[in-house]
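Take a record:
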Amino acid sequence: DPDYALAHAALADTYILMGFYSHRPKDVYPLAERSIARALAIDPNLTEVHLSKAGLNFFHKWNWAGAVRSVRRAVELNPRSAQAHHWLGVVLVCLGQNDEAQRSMEKAREIDPGYFIAQVDLVAPYVVRGEFETAAKIIERVLEMASDCARAREQLAMCYMGAGRYDDAIREARRAVEISNRTGVFATALAKTLAAAGRREEA
């Protein structure tokens, strides 16, 4: 169905994630932009496409104001969307608005307790405040639900690193690399933890 707006938004999300994790951004982000434009033309009031637009602004264009506008529009269209509240929190924490970011992420968890990626990102406001052990405990609880989540392992490594627990950080970063089949972003996180631990030759 070429007029299925949600499918175009989902395709855009796929391209955006490919550009972040595995492909050259210049090869896939223009495809995401086209998919977003198509979805908006079909249904301008679809929550998911506004989240896709926010993601493109956030990851590719670094247009923070545009990302905020898009994600707030998504929340307005569907206040019960856990994904919308999650993404609002992600964008806001990058803008230094930690209190509202934390409320948004907690709202996402309240709406959908099984949406564990939102719980992974819930650590961000705590990390910004230097509350690394509290952040680590949040991630440890997530891993009880999803032990093979590479992103959770990576974030736990960053929390341990911030707390000065370098051996634990390296262990978790290595696990993230293994789970992800050596995806670049996780390999970079491992290099960062090794360097922070003073093991620059291994990094």
Remarks:
- The chain has twelve helices and no strands.
- The mean pLDDT is 92.
- Residues 25-42 form the longest helix (18 residues).
